[in-house]
From TrEMBL:
Pathway recorded for this protein: Amino-acid biosynthesis; L-methionine biosynthesis via salvage pathway; L-methionine from S-methyl-5-thio-alpha-D-ribose 1-phosphate: step 3/6; Amino-acid biosynthesis; L-methionine biosynthesis via salvage pathway; L-methionine from S-methyl-5-thio-alpha-D-ribose 1-phosphate: step 4/6
Gene: mtnC
EC number: 3.1.3.77
UniProtKB keywords: Amino-acid biosynthesis, Hydrolase, Magnesium, Metal-binding, Methionine biosynthesis
Protein name stated in the entry: Enolase-phosphatase E1
Family note: Belongs to the HAD-like hydrolase superfamily. MasA/MtnC family.
Source species taxonomy: Bacteria, Bacillati, Actinomycetota, Actinomycetes, Pseudonocardiales
The UniProt record lists the keyword Signal: no
Listed GO biological process terms: L-methionine salvage from methylthioadenosine
């Protein structure tokens, strides 16, 4: 039986929820990995890049005079460990943004995603994203997808820089404030139980995506409503 939820806002995770985890960990990571060093060297006067490099040196225990090679070694280590560290995400997002603009990258949605997004938007629901990937990367990834440009469906984008860690309740409190919404008026979709726990702790409605073949496909979602595709839930505006 299809469950029905009422809300004002639908907030969505990306990796494992809208796209396969392998798209991020293989396609996008492999695209960014060899381009990190050249990007740093080619944009020395970009404040965003300079700030990211300074933070990488600080977090990676490198001296201020460390070379780009040293910085990239730290970044590759974080990528190998799938660390969601802000300056890494910043640089990846900038590189992916260029990749999408140049036509090198196309986001591959699960088949049920685009129809659900468009149906929610057309019904009057407001859509937002909360992902560990940078806001720049999010917008770029939605600009070129297997279902066309879907950037116009989303009103707000949040990442670990402008909201906070994805597994902590204060991050969801900050997002609710930015959306000017009561927590109970928001439904959050994610494939990670710990993220759903953080949202629920702030009073959000939560739905877990246990997609076949994904890392959390067989996870214990506890008390969170759990579905395998968006076809198994209906969200209507309040």
């Amino acid at each position: 039986m299809t469950a029905t939820l009422t809300a004002r806002w639908v907030v969505l995770d990306i990796e494992g929820t809208l796209t396969a985890t392998s798209y991020v960990h293989v396609t996008l990571y492999d695209y960014a990995r060899p381009r990190l060093g050249p990007w740093i060297d080619e944009h020395p006067d970009d404040p965003e890049v300079a700030d990211a490099v300074a933070r990488i040196k600080e977090l990676g225990g490198l001296p201020a005079e460390a070379s780009t090679v040293d910085v990239v070694r730290v970044l590759h280590g974080w990528m190998d460990a799938d660390q969601k560290i802000a300056p890494l995400k910043t640089l990846q997002g900038l590189i992916w943004q260029r990749g999408y603009a140049d036509g090198d990258l196309t986001t591959e949605f699960f088949g049920d995603v685009a129809p659900a997004l468009r149906a929610w938007h057309e019904s009057g629901l407001r859509l937002a994203v909360f992902s560990s990937g940078s806001v720049a990367g999010q917008v770029a990834s939605f600009s070129r997808t297997t279902d066309g440009d879907v950037t116009g469906l989303f009103e707000q984008h949040f990442d670990t820089v402008n909201a906070g860690p994805k597994r902590e309740a204060p991050s969801y409190r900050a997002i609710a404030s930015a959306l000017e919404a009561e927590p109970g008026d928001i439904v959050f979709f994610s494939d990670v139980p710990a993220e759903l726990d953080g949202a629920a702790a702030d009073g959000w409605q939560t739905v877990g995506l246990a997609r076949d073949g994904e890392p959390f496909g067989d996870a214990d979602f506890g008390t969170h409503r759990t579905i395998r595709t968006f076809d198994e839930v209906k969200v209507v505006p309040r």
